Structures
1.
Amino acid sequence: MITTAKRLDIIEEYYFSSKLREVRQLASEGKPIINMGIGSPDLQPSQAVVDAVVLAMQEESAHQYQSYQGLPELRNGMADFYQNNFQVALNPNTEILPLMGSKEGIMHISLAFLNEGDQVLIPNPGYPTYTSVTNLVGAVPVYYDLKEVNNWEPDFEALEELDLSKVKIMWIGYPHMPTGARGSLQLFEKLVAFAKKHQILLVNDNPYSFVLNENPMSLLQVEGAKDVALELNSLSKTFNMAGWRVGMVLGNAACIDAVLKVKSNMDSGMFYGIQKGAIEALKSDKTWFESMNAIYRKRRILTEQLAEKLGCKVYKDGVGLFVWAKLPDGITSAEKFIDEILYDKSIFITPGTIFGSNGEGYIRFALCVKEEKVQEAINRF
């Protein structure tokens, strides 16, 4: 037999990859599944974005290999987007690198900076990919607590008590996934100071900044952040382009160059038409965000009603694409709770446990379901 690499012994298949097979099986058996688990936007990109792709398909060079750094006008569009929305000035030639979705950036950054045995600070709860990628490259996850009592923000006293001598990267992400905690510029300032003190690469994962959030922020707004920080962003949630796979990494020029060394050995450039669509999306003005948020706001109100009907306590201060809710008193297993609902009511909700031990006792609802479907879910109870 051909044996697999040892690195596979310490990771598991991504939760949604395996769980959604189970959900699809139930649907194939005729169950009327309402999927409130995964954050895949069901809304459409703007017509201008679609038109830009269609037009690009006719260009002579559309189907050739593209630059590893993306089209200059795409990087310029990303720079303009950050200037207009965050008042952050970035050099499009040295401080911006387009990605095929921000998720691949987690792998590229890890490969560029982590040696075997290096340690990585990972939020608990947090995006599971931080852990799996850390394990894949042979580094060591070190979890830091985020708790509701601290508004899902780090406890800096507890961080300072850790042995940080082997820590190379610290992952953060505000607005936070899964809780929706907003964060603040004051928090970012403390994080940048912490990273400078301990010579840690600070990486902010920022794909939810415009969803139900009246005050979008970037880590790069903090003075001196570029000395120690990178930021990932994505068009997936902001512009309903999840399947297009368009993201970006921004910040420290030397770090961007290191990431490019990895990326250029792993793909052959982003499809020209997708880049053209992304350029158009990045030109969107505030009316686009307002129209999307008007829809998400109505969905959130109904989803909170559903959570409360289940006896859950909703984290009301959350923004982003999810509703985070505490389980009813006496319920000890989030996974058992959601499975009972899945098999009894044909509604799929995400258990908080997949985001870390501090997610036990919580569940997460995605706002990627039409209002009438959320109402139907409510009616099933």
Note: The longest strand covers residues 140-147.
2.
Amino acid sequence: MTGKKAETLNQRIRADLESRILSGEWAPGFRIPYEHELMEQYGCSRMTVNKVLTALAESGMIERRRRAGSFVARQPPHLEQVALEIPDIAMAVGARGHVYGYQLLDRAYRAPDTQVEEEMALSAGEKLLAIRCLHRADGRPFALEYRLISPVGVPEVLDVDFNTTAPGSWLLQNVSWTRAQHRISAWGADAAAAALLEVPMGTACLVIDRLTWRGDQPITCVRQMFLGDAWDLVARFAPGAR
């Protein structure tokens, strides 16, 4: 009987702590109350509290640090995107409890490649702003981006300092769009991409090519290369939906 009561108390404490974590009340990095505080709160032994915290640590929900206590775990930067949405990568990384980082690799104002149909349509006979950048989570690379922006469709873009601002975030915050086209594929990272992403050549990557319009005017096209274990695309639908 005593064992059954102890088991029930274990389950109750664990369910309570899990609820606070999953609801967001205890955000990633939040320090869980110390063992003696939980003992007092639940009127239980140190052994009971320790079993609960050990189970939560084994499940990946918390991290136990010697002499520092237990903390809500920061989930890996594995991001989920609804397939028909355009995400703000900086916001998505931050929402997972990670520190977002951005690095501008190069910026050029160049003529379109006449052999590439998308570039010709985007340019409307003018030069394009070409940007290559790297997205990071907690200091580690997880996405490489190649972007072209039309100064015809977005003339103010030439005055923006992209040394500190990711172009995708700036566009979402400042430029309205009416339609977009996604092309999704799987690639193995070539030598250049692998070096920037700090992975072996051939590492699996999810590649998203996107062209965005405002009315009839294309405003940007982008290729984003995500490490294969860092990004999910999700489509939600119901029976009979079109």
Note: The radius of gyration is 24 Å.
3.
Amino acid sequence: MTAPVFVVDAVPGAGTFVLEGPEGRHAVSVKRLQAGEELVLADGRGRWAECVVRAAEGKDRLTVEVTADHEDPAEEPRITVVQALPKGDRGELAVETMTETGVDAIVPWAASRCITQWRGDRGLKALAKWRATAREAGKQSRRTRFPEVAELVTTKQAAALLATADFAAVLHEDRDHPSGALATAGLPAAGSIVLVVGPEGGVSPEELAVFEAAGAKPYRLGRSVLRTSTAGTAAAALVLARTGRWS
């Protein structure tokens, strides 16, 4: 089992460091770490440190010794998923599993057929939940770089993002679509890959036309139709394997 990850604003250098606050409480009161056990401090942006516990105090204070610090470079190609807003808490499920799989960025998209709408305070709270989910899933899956969760985008804004990608695809439910399968598409070894996941009702013909004009062709995953909350994870896994990031 790899060492548990705890998030800090800035990764400390060699010497002792005191982990306090919510992360310290989790380490002391939930994980119940003891002297001699190992852990990792990470900033979620690629910097991380190997540490050994020296002492636990109270309910939320852990003193550790930093034994080594590192910086992981951003992986290539960079994988971004433009995710249409799912119903209920399936949005957090999508963010959680995509984070665990290895997606680098998640962009919430207000598709025309989305039942869920992010407006006002409700939208701000929903975005905060997505970001908190990405952070917690990043810790749980022992990532040192957590995915960025962007602001909600319109179809026009999503198209602008697709136009900058080295490869862009819209996941399509039509298994006979002439663009073919994502499993056989030509993928770049570096640069950026952007995948669009539509809502439960599918991507509208108008949205599909806008995305195709931006350079994103529709591709199918397989014979079965996946839910919007699982399609991004499946597509990301396929891309990660095909581009060598899982090798």
Note: The chain has a mean pLDDT of 94.
4.
Amino acid sequence: MTTEPTPPRQPRPAPRTTTRDPAEVARRLTDWLDARLPGAQVSGVSVPESNGMSSDTLLFDIEHPEPPLRRCALRLAADPDAYTVFPVYDMERQYRTMRLVAEHTDVPVPRVLWLERDPAPLGAPFFVMERVAGRVPPDVMPYTYEGNWLYEASDTERARLEDATVGVLAHLHDQVPAAAAGFLALPGEGSALRRHVASQRAYYAWVVEGLPRSPLVESAFAKLGELWPRDEGAPVLSWGDARIGNVVYDGFEPAAVLDWEMAALAPREVDIGWTVFLHRFFQDLAVGFGQPGLPDFLRRDRIEARYARLTGHQPRDMDFYILYAALRHAVVMLRVAYRQVHFGEATVPEAPEGPDTLILHHDRLAAMVQGDFG
């Protein structure tokens, strides 16, 4: 007698990423732009395929004789009525961060054009930046799956992209004076790392308010206490969402570093751990669906060694920081899942599984809590 192979796990339906009407945004954006560039017209408004579930991104062109056609992108704070992923969207903070990085580093960031603090024109604050041509490693389906440009690249080309991306982190951390980034200090008492973790605890409390709590997330917070670094090091400007899916590449070189809404003052290893873990997350997804993925890409040992060569700083306590990255991502995943529940796209599993199974990487996070970082 033969048995049928177990089919690969099927993902939950893709959650909606925006509740806004691009045509309505285009009309209101044209009205707003007329005060800055009289006679300008907005055309080609679209939502990129990579649009996340946090701030909305809209792509558009400006048609105006002086200056010539501009290709732009707009970052619009999330609609507060759309069950947002984060409790606060500080567009001015993102705008200031991008200007700071452009002023002090050779890290490529899009040129920011305008900041609008008033929510009246589009329903929320926003900023406009120039759009940079290039390609982005996809999240859906992930770049670790067959059939996309990064997967089909050669090992040499991926190694080039990896080295250049680690170089972005090295230059960001080394070149921005911490004093100039003081506005990114998180509130609270104690060191930058203590404040960073405290902010994540507050975020988790917000996510589960009135909803089932996650025993796995809470055990991961407890594990952080056991692994806490003895020497946290001096804080730097931390990108916060340091992953290749937030970089536009020209060939295999970074052309624009995007998504600065999680930037803060923090130890260097916060970004390094996030880069390592987010690739591991996508690699685990590929393996879980029966694909080989990219197991030799963005490996922890290579990232640490490359960063040390570029900066003279040897990353330390990386078990702590990779666990922290997995924990932070778990809280985001839980919020995204509860957002799907809110919109009737998913349900909370009954006990004994409970809300922990809404976290796509719950097996990996559980293993880390038990001390397995392999």
Note: Residues 155-370 form a domain with the Aminoglycoside 3'-phosphotransferase; Chain: A, domain 2 fold (CATH 3.90.1200.10).
